[in-house]
Amino acid sequence: MSEIEFRSEMTVELVRSNASDADVLFAARVSTQGEQTLESAQSGDEATSRDRGLINYLMRDRHGSPFEHNSMTFYVQAPIFVFREFMRHRMASYNEESGRYRQLNPTFYVPNEKRNLVQEGKPGAYNFLPGTPEQTALVQAEAEAQSIAAYESYQRMLEAGVAREVARIVLPLNLYSSMYVTVNARSLMNFLSLRTKREGTHFPSFPQREIEMCAEQMENFFAELMPLTYEAFNKNGRVAP
């Protein structure tokens, strides 16, 4: 049997992008100036105060379509239960590895000691508090034991000639999967507004920590690619236009 691995982190890589603030300016100005060229729209250090003002205006007054003329593709490794939350957004194109066509690797998510474990509050406004050392040890021991047992069951069925698509039914939600996610800035801002917890947002969110770990990494790439758009997003309460 393959060696079982336990992890507590999420992997997010930017594999390709066609995204800049210039894309927003290019798309927005066609409405008042007609045909544009990308060369005429500057971004980053070359952007003018007028450019910055236009992007802020679009964000503030929620003229959202200019933020759709770009693309970012991410490679994500995370537990299956995180992918379920991703796909509820219906805001991106997804392609995930398939347990029908390949044998799944024995890599499982187990929370580390930094993961809050105790829930209090009401639905939609939960707070999570640190667990005791005993609770942390219990979560880790149970998650590891169940993961090992499930993967051994999966292996026994495969060795007996059972199809992969049938054998996988015993695998738990903490199994890591991988996928490509392609998204534009407008959709990504909507995702970030819901899956990160930040002070000063117009609409506070209370995401599960594991998907927030993915969202934080995606946000870092977004901030680097489109700094003026990212600045306006934060300035206007992290509301997607």
UniProtKB/TrEMBL annotation:
Cofactor binding remark: Binds 4 FAD per tetramer. Each FAD binding site is formed by three monomers.
UniProt keyword annotations, A-Z: FAD, Flavoprotein, Methyltransferase, NADP, Nucleotide biosynthesis, Transferase
UniProt pathway: Pyrimidine metabolism; dTTP biosynthesis
Signal peptide: none
Domain of life: Bacteria
Single Gene Ontology BP annotation: dTTP biosynthetic process
Cofactor: FAD
Catalytic residue positions: 195 (involved in ionization of n3 of dump, leading to its activation)
Residues where FAD binds: 65, 88-90, 96, 184-186, 190
Amino acids binding dUMP: 85-88, 96-100, 168, 195
Catalysed reactions, as listed in the record: dUMP + (6R)-5,10-methylene-5,6,7,8-tetrahydrofolate + NADPH + H(+) = dTMP + (6S)-5,6,7,8-tetrahydrofolate + NADP(+)
Molecular-function annotations in GO: flavin adenine dinucleotide binding; NADPH binding; thymidylate synthase (FAD) activity; thymidylate synthase activity
Pfam families linked to this entry: Thy1
Free-text function comment from the UniProt entry: Catalyzes the reductive methylation of 2'-deoxyuridine-5'-monophosphate (dUMP) to 2'-deoxythymidine-5'-monophosphate (dTMP) while utilizing 5,10-methylenetetrahydrofolate (mTHF) as the methyl donor, and NADPH and FADH(2) as the reductant.
Quaternary assembly: Homotetramer.
Name of the featured protein: Flavin-dependent thymidylate synthase
Name of the gene this protein is made from: thyX
